[in-house]
Amino acid sequence: MLRDAALVAGKDLRIEVRSRVALNQVGPFALVVLLLFAFALDPDRGVLREATPGLFWIAVLLSTLLVVQRSYGIEAADAGRDALRLTGLDPAGVFLGKASAVFVVLALLEVALAAGVWLMYDADFAGWPVLLVAAATATVGLVAAGTVYGALAAGLRVRETLLPLLFLPVVAPVMIGGTRAFAAALDGSTGEGWRWCALLGTFAVAYVALGMLLFEPLLEDS
Fold it and tell me: d(Cα 95, Cα 148) in Å, to the nearest integer?
């Protein structure tokens, strides 16, 4: 399973490196989202600082939708999804591989977004250990749910609009936990931040486990 996951992740990451879609399109889009919020809330810097955690995760959420759609879009042409099914790879390995590739892309985007938040929002990352753990666990939850619902919507004609409708309600707890952990870290309340990180870890494990169980029928029906 892990070997199959490494093969799928390597394939998706090589395609991403060659196409540079995340670098040339998704990254600038996420930064523009942060910039627009900065312009909208700039007259009141206090409000902007208080809204920083939520704005950061909104940008990450929108980027997740784009990256997940891209992950399945590259297999839509030339019957790539059918070829993936015929390889005989472990479906759980395929799930882990695609999720790992999306995680790597999102992690790089989050580094750029954190730099943007620091420059534009004057954020203080004093509680950076909490921020790192919260970002990692929340991203795992987003990626696992996105990979499952991306496979569900991939074979449908209205997948571009259906994926957000399916995905957003499921990841609402992850968004809340990530925002609260981010806010606690910025305020110096690391004890509260670690509690939110524990909750995010629970959701991450649950979403990954469900994804490994459900991905085989989704892959066959997509």
Answer: 8
- Read off the pLDDT of residues 104-152 as tens digits, 9 standing for 90 and up: 999 999 999 988 888 888 777 777 888 899 999 999 999 999 988 888 7
Q: Which residue, among 201, 48, 51, has the nearest Cα to 193 in the 3D structure? A: 201
Q: Which residues contact 89 (CB under 8 A, 6 or more apart)?
A: 4, 7, 8
CA distance 218 to 85: 11
DSSP readout, 54-86?
Answer: HHHHHHHHHHHHHHHHHHHHTTTGGGHHHHHHH
pTM to 2 decimals? Answer: 0.88
CA 80 – CA 125 distance, rounded (Å): 43
Whether residue 82 has pLDDT greater than 70:
no
CA angle 55-56-60, nearest 5°?
115
Report which DSSP code applies to 113: H
